[in-house]
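Q:
My hope is that you can spare some time for a protein that puzzles me. I hope you can help me see how the letters and the C-alpha cells relate. Thank you; the sequence and its C-alpha cells follow:
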Amino acid sequence: MSGSYETGETKALPNGIPPPPFDLPFPDKPEVITANLLKLIELCKDERRRFIFKNMITHMHQFVQETSITTEEWMNTIEFLTRVGKKCTPIRQEFILLSDTLGVSALVDAINNPVVKGATESSVLGPFFTVDAPDVAMGDSIASEGSGDYMYVEGKITSTDGTPVSDAIIETWETNGHGYYDTQLPVREKPDCRGRLHSGPDGSYGYRAVVPVSYPVPGDGPVGELLLALNRHNMRPNHLHIMVEAPGFRKLTTAFYPEGDEWLTSDTVFGVKKSLMVKLADVNDDAEARKRGFPNGGPFKLLKFDIVLVPEEQSKAMLEKTIQERAKNAPA
C-alpha cells in the first residue's frame, strides 16, 4: 500500500508523560538552556531527587559556562566515561576507582559519617570488595599459605558506651605480599586474602592474615591514564580493609594503615585518617606463632585495634545535626 511503513516492528512509543503544562522559550541563548531545564526539573515529584538534580544541573552548566569547554573536549570526556564503563566487570569496578581518585568517595564518606567522639572513624570502601569472601572461624587465616609475611589481627568490638558487641559480622580483605588483590590475579580459583568472621561473646575478634604492602591502583585502564595526564602517582599506602555490621549499629567501613609507609600522606584515594594509623608489633616467639596457628612458626607482626561502633540512633542524630549546621553555614 502506498505510503505505508511496514518493518515488522511495533511502533516506537513515548514514555507516557504528556508535554509540560507550560511553553518553554526556544534556546536561542546558552542561559535559556539552563533555565528551561531547571524549570522542567520542578516537575519532578520526589522532593529529594528534585533537589539533587537541580543542584547538579546548576553546577554542571556553570562548569561548562566557566570553562567554555569545546565540543572536542566534551566528546573526549564522553568517550573517557564510556571506556570507564566498559572496563568494569563483576570483579573490577573502574567507576569506583574513578570516584576514589577524584576524592568523591572520600568526600561522600566524610559527609555521611560525621566523627563521633570515641568511635572508630570510617574510610573508603575501595574498588576491590567482593561478596564471596569465605567464612572463617576465630583465629583462622584469611590468606593462603605463602601469600605474604605472617600477621595476626586482634581486638575487641564495643559500643561507644563500652558495651561489647557480640556476633558482629566482620568482613576483611587485603592484598597479598606482592601488592595484588585476588581479583587482579590472572587466574582466580577462589577468594584469597579475604574472609568473613564473627566477634565472640565478649566482642573479641582475631584472625591470621599477611602483612599488607603499598600498591598501585590499576594503571591499565582509563583511570590510570587520567592520573598520568594529571601528573599524579597511583599509589596507596599499605592497609587492611575492615567492614563491621551488627544489629542496632551503624555499619562501619574502615581500614587500618600501618605507620611508616611513604605514601601515607599522599594516598591517591584520600582514605588515610590519623586515627586509623596503627603500629605493627614484632613478635619473634616461635612458640607463640605456632600457638596462633601459623604453620611454619617464626616471627610475625601483631596488629591490635579495638573497634568502636556507633548505635544507629546516635549516628542518625549526629548526621542530622551535621546536615543542619552545613545548611546554616552554606552560602546564600
